Every structure is written in C-alpha cells, then in structure tokens.
Amino acid sequence: MGKSLNGKELGKGLSQRKDGLYQGRFVNRFGKKQTVYAKTLNEVRQKLRNEQYEDEKALNVVAKDVTLDEWYEIWMDTCKKNCRDSTKETYAGHYRRIQKALGWRKLTSLNLLIMQQAINELETDNERKNSKKILVDMLEKAIDSDLLIKNSAKQINTVISKEVKKERRVLTVGETELFFSYAKDTFYYNLYVVAIDTGMRIGELMGLQWSDVDFEKKVVHVRRSLCYFRKDGKYVFEWHDTKTHNSKRTIPLTTRAMEALKKQRVRGQEILLKNAQTAQDEYKNLVFVTRNNRPTQQFIVQECMDVTTRRIQKEHSEFERFSPHCFRHTFATRAIENGMQPKSVQKLLGHGSLQLTMDLYCHVTDDTLFDEMRKMEAV
C-alpha cells in the first residue's frame, strides 16, 4: 500500500508524490501499468475507479502504445467478430504478408513511408491492393478509437509494376463446344453442365443438396454454399449462408441441366451404396461428391478440368486453361449475347446491383464484335 507524505496509509495503488500530487496505479488487462493523477485524494480515487471500470468493461479498448500486431488481434475480435471464419482466414492471409515488416511497430509510428516500403516488397499489384485495404480499415478503426488522428494508409500506392491486367476468361462458343466434347465421359461432366447453364458459384455447387432441386418445377434453389478452408491450423468444411441476401435465389433449369442432374442422381446413389459404411450423414444429401462420397472441393474440380484441357491442347495448342468460375462468366456473357435482359441476368447471378453484373460478367467476345459490325453495313 502507498502512503501520503506524512506517512498515512492511502490504500492499494495509491500514493502521494513529493510535489504533493496524488497518484493511482493499476495493471490493466493488457498487462501494462496505468496511472492517474489528482490534487486531492478523493479525486485520484474517483479517477482510479473510473479507469479500472473502463478497463474491466473494455471501454478503453486498447493501450495507447499498442503495436500493429496487438491492434490486429483487437480489430479481428471486435470489428470483424461476426465475419465468416473463411473471411477471417482471408484477412489473416492478407495481414501475414505485411506482419513481419509492420507487426512489431507501434501503431502511432506507422507513417506513409514505413507502410509504403512494406507494401513495395509484395510481389503483385493484387497482393499490394489487398494488404492496403486491410491496413486502411485497421487504421480507420484506430482513429474511431482515439488512437490515431490520421490514416496515412489511404495514400499508399499499390501499382508498382507494369502488370498487364488480364481480362476475365470467357469461353467462346467454339471453346465451349470443344471442352464439353472432350469432357463428355469425365467424372465431373454433370457439374460442368450445371455450372455453365446456371451461372452458380463453385461454392454454391459444392453445397447444393437434392432437397434444393425441384425436378417437377424444373428449378434449383440456391440456399447455401460449402466452403473448404484453413481454420486453427487445419483444413475444414463449413456450411455458409449465401454470399449476400440476393444470392439466395431460384434458377430455372435448361433441358440439358435437367438431364445432367438426373444422371447425377443415379451416379450419386451408386456412390452412396458403395460407401454406405463410411458415408457421413451431413453430406449424404449433396448433389456433387467425390468417388468416396465426400464433399468435392474447388481444387479437385480444377485438377479434373486441367486433365481435360491438356487432352484438348494436344490437338488444339491455342486452347487456354480456365477455372471453374469461368463457367459463371461464360453463362452471363452468353445470356447477354442472346438477348436476355440484364436485370434478369442480375437475378440469376444473385447480384445486389445491376452495375456489378454489367461490370464483372458481361464480356464482348470477338464473335459478337464481328456480328455487331456486320449490322453496321446495313445502315
């Protein structure tokens, strides 16, 4: 216990300095000493109680000399608490790229020069853009918490190299016919058909259940997605609600997609019978599974697509590799080319805004350009 200048016991954490000021000290939840001062004993007691209350109720949020690493943990636990685990893991990946250079630094020492140097060390414009984005958000929340007065991360330049921005890959009509002719007898052929005829995301296809397919009404209901990602040091499957409210939708099925789903139904029952002893109840209703009746994953589908692509390239060397998401791009582009109203395409894709649909998924192919120019000849 501390004492006053005349030797009187003042209580735990309280003392009087030689200049007459009273001081109160305690160790906050960050393990750091916090001190208050006042001219009278009653005042310092009140100040100390207030600080301890704020610390206990987490009203003081963070110590003033917090490092970026410490602030990242607080930012994730408070500002991003309600994010999906897969989204949190994405944030963690972006932060790890700059952690070695910046994590140990005091939040208040992060100026534009220091952050720009760290960003410059990253390999691609995309990595720089994502790392800047997380820095901007972290520092903005620090300003809201009265830890900073300025967000210098907003001025970070992310375009360092002269990278040629790749256009989103869209299959031409000819490429589509070529791929599907080669993929005809492959394990995931039915998935490819449903993907390109519905525009569903790969995660939505992975999470599609037979209860979502209405063969009588010829529609499929998109209600969830199944994600596979790293969590607590290991990879796990996790059910998620659809990406946004608009992502929850009903998609009419083409005749080809209906046939593919019927064939997949038969195949799925055969796979389930072969793996009846090991099949997990949680995944028994999935439409697209592996040969072992496990949920499929994007990288597995990609590997199977790559096998088909390599076969094509033996006779058509110009045919380029593409990802499962390319089916979604191609669906939207074909829909627009064939006269579907953009608003309808937006609903089928599950986008919240029409502008997003037009900006991201409506590509003009070379075939369409020639057709449009021929129309000009008649003018």
UniProtKB/TrEMBL annotation:
<dbReference type="InterPro" id="IPR002104">
    <property type="entry name" value="Integrase_catalytic"/>
</dbReference>
<protein>
    <submittedName>
        <fullName>Site-specific recombinase XerD</fullName>
    </submittedName>
</protein>
<feature type="domain" description="Tyr recombinase">
    <location>
        <begin position="166"/>
        <end position="374"/>
    </location>
</feature>
<dbReference type="InterPro" id="IPR013762">
    <property type="entry name" value="Integrase-like_cat_sf"/>
</dbReference>
<dbReference type="Pfam" id="PF00589">
    <property type="entry name" value="Phage_integrase"/>
</dbReference>
<dbReference type="Pfam" id="PF14659">
    <property type="entry name" value="Phage_int_SAM_3"/>
</dbReference>
<comment type="function">
    <text>Site-specific tyrosine recombinase, which acts by catalyzing the cutting and rejoining of the recombining DNA molecules.</text>
</comment>
<dbReference type="InterPro" id="IPR010998">
    <property type="entry name" value="Integrase_recombinase_N"/>
</dbReference>
<keyword id="KW-0238">DNA-binding</keyword>
<dbReference type="InterPro" id="IPR004191">
    <property type="entry name" value="Integrase_Tn916-type_DNA-bd_N"/>
</dbReference>
<dbReference type="GO" id="GO:0015074">
    <property type="term" value="P:DNA integration"/>
</dbReference>
<dbReference type="InterPro" id="IPR004107">
    <property type="entry name" value="Integrase_SAM-like_N"/>
</dbReference>
<dbReference type="Pfam" id="PF02920">
    <property type="entry name" value="Integrase_DNA"/>
</dbReference>
<dbReference type="InterPro" id="IPR011010">
    <property type="entry name" value="DNA_brk_join_enz"/>
</dbReference>
<comment type="similarity">
    <text>Belongs to the 'phage' integrase family.</text>
</comment>
<keyword id="KW-0229">DNA integration</keyword>
<dbReference type="GO" id="GO:0006310">
    <property type="term" value="P:DNA recombination"/>
</dbReference>
<keyword id="KW-0233">DNA recombination</keyword>
<dbReference type="InterPro" id="IPR050090">
    <property type="entry name" value="Tyrosine_recombinase_XerCD"/>
</dbReference>
<dbReference type="GO" id="GO:0003677">
    <property type="term" value="F:DNA binding"/>
</dbReference>
